[in-house]
Fold this sequence. Notes:
Layout: E1 13-19, H1 23-34, E2 39-42, E3 54-57, E4 60-63, E5 69-70, H2 75-81, E6 88-90, E7 93-97, E8 100-103, H3 109-120, H4 125-145, H5 160-182, H6 188-193, H7 199-206, H8 215-219, H9 221-227, E9 228-231, H10 237-248, E10 252-254, E11 259-263, E12 268-271, E13 276-284, H11 288-294, E14 295-296, H12 302-317, E15 323-331, H13 335-339, E16 345-349, H14 361-368, H15 375-388, E17 391-394, H16 396-399, E18 409-417, H17 419-427, H18 431-448, E19 458-464, H19 466-473, E20 509-511, H20 522-544
Parallel strand pairs: 1-2, 1-13, 2-10, 7-16, 11-14, 13-20
Antiparallel strand pairs: 3-4, 5-9, 6-9, 7-8, 11-12, 12-13, 15-18, 15-19, 16-17, 17-18
Helix pairs in contact: 1-10, 1-20, 3-4, 4-5, 11-12, 15-18
Bound molecules: flavin-adenine dinucleotide (FAD).
Amino acid sequence: MKSLKQRNMPENTYNTIIVGGGIAGLTSAAYLARAGQKVLLIEKNKECGGLVNSFTRDGFHFDAGVRALEDAGIILPMLKDLGIQLEVVKSKVSLGIENEILHIENFESLFEYRELLKKLFPECDGEIDEVVKIIRKIMKHMDVLYGIENPVFKDLRRDRTFIFKKLLPWLPRFIFTVGKINRMNKPVEEYLKTIVKNPSLRDIISQHFFKNTPTFFALSYFSLYLDYFYPKGGIGRLPEALKNKIIESGREIKTETKIIKVMADKCLVKDQNNIIYQYDNLIWAADLKTLYKITEAEGLLPQIKTIFEESKNNMLKNRGGDSVFSLFLEVDEPLESFRKIANGHFFYTPSKLGLGETHRGELNNMLSNFKRIEKEQILTWLDKFTRLNTYEISIPGLKDPELVPPGKTGLIISFLAEYDLFNKIKEAGWLDEFIKELENRILSVISDSVYPVLKNKIIARFSFTPLSIENRVGSSEGAITGWSFQESMPVINKIQNSGRSILTPIPSIYQAGQWAYSPAGAPMSILTGKLAAAKALKQIRKYKNR
Ligand SMILES: Cc1cc2nc3c(=O)[nH]c(=O)nc-3n(C[C@H](O)[C@H](O)[C@H](O)COP(=O)(O)OP(=O)(O)OC[C@H]3O[C@@H](n4cnc5c(N)ncnc54)[C@H](O)[C@@H]3O)c2cc1C
């Protein structure tokens, strides 16, 4: 620790440097700026936001990452705490399977969902009752978990009313709930096998989750659907508001700057132009495998170096979780035609058969024998995959009509996708052709089922693959919510330990964002961003007072 006592800071020297201008890094920077720290946020892209971002094309607004935000007792309290005004609307969700479509309005919609499933799977009556009973139980736990504004975003020294009226009565219920949550850690697919015999029904309930999602996280989706909101003007308004807050505080954001080396013993980072920056604390709010790959640990104390090397091995042998494929459509058809069918955030499964082994055994088999597989076989697999999949369809104009040219509609149709498939096809030299084949199949499945209005009305179309995500945000395996779910996680995955999720083996380096805690997502990225900022601040104050 070379420079903690250094107060008159020379050029390119900062109390805290934050690498990664996604939602986690922006949160850290906004809090450190508010605390009066000399802070620098470094982002490799031209725009901040990472996987929380929007763009406009031909007058159509699209969200490139997350389609709507779950508050989770985190996002709105964070905005309030930072004094940021953001106009938001509810992002209503619809669920559809074949011709059955349900608009989720409130808690009672869970029982309509039960009836919808019974209509499609009349032979599974008792099993559906059982699943819905469990979802109901989980919803009660979620009410506790997100029942108060997250205390991390409250001023606990001053807000006595919050402490005595909300926090203290809530704590025992929270501790009880955490115990219950931890007992529901089994992958949802395995858990459902214990209550549901029909494999199609199991798929319909769970196939739009990441592989091996912990049961609690997966079956809490009904609560999350009720919690979704959308910033007026698009998702990108959230990172923009944080960025403006940082700039208003007179702090620096360096975009188009990529950190390529961390010299941990000297507290230095280097960018692609060989410019060196010095920090007291570093918050790494980007891909964690990258941090370990580019960090020189040579001069560190031997015991720290040993733990660092162990951690590095552990991180590098793990994989990022599922990625996503998104098809963007500019459509010459008014919003009304779509409003009649479903809400602007829509989970739609065209066939109740379910994916079965299509996206697991069959895909794995294809990937491990890739060199021997003919293109035709892959395309036949693609037919089945697109017919049986679940799609997340977002229509920004149904949440905010200002987001499309008059009389037109923009759609984003996406689904979970395997990075390795796209990568191998790219290596085989036919990625563009594969993308076109995929787009054609999605369009034919969706226009033959839920949106016949799409036929002959598409003005333009384009898509982002897992490889685009990897290129854009530097996310290993194109992951969108950090690590893939496996038996042993390389990061903290228990809510009661979340305070430690931001620690790395190197005392002056903290981690935040989708890779710091599992399961992750936008709210958890924000929470870890705030926790990392608080820790960095505490460390700086500790040294200042020496
Ligand atoms: C289609 C889609 C749907 C989603 N749906 C949901 C949802 O419903 N609910 C939910 O909670 N979450 C959802 N997510 C996930 C959520 O958006 C992310 O988990 C979250 O935004 C991650 O934020 P982050 O700041 O941790 O990381 P990122 O957004 O990955 O930001 C990291 C930043 O670091 C920058 N960077 C990387 N390397 C460097 C470097 N060397 N130097 C400088 N800068 C660097 C990147 O450019 C990027 O801006 C979704 C994501 C997608 C794509």
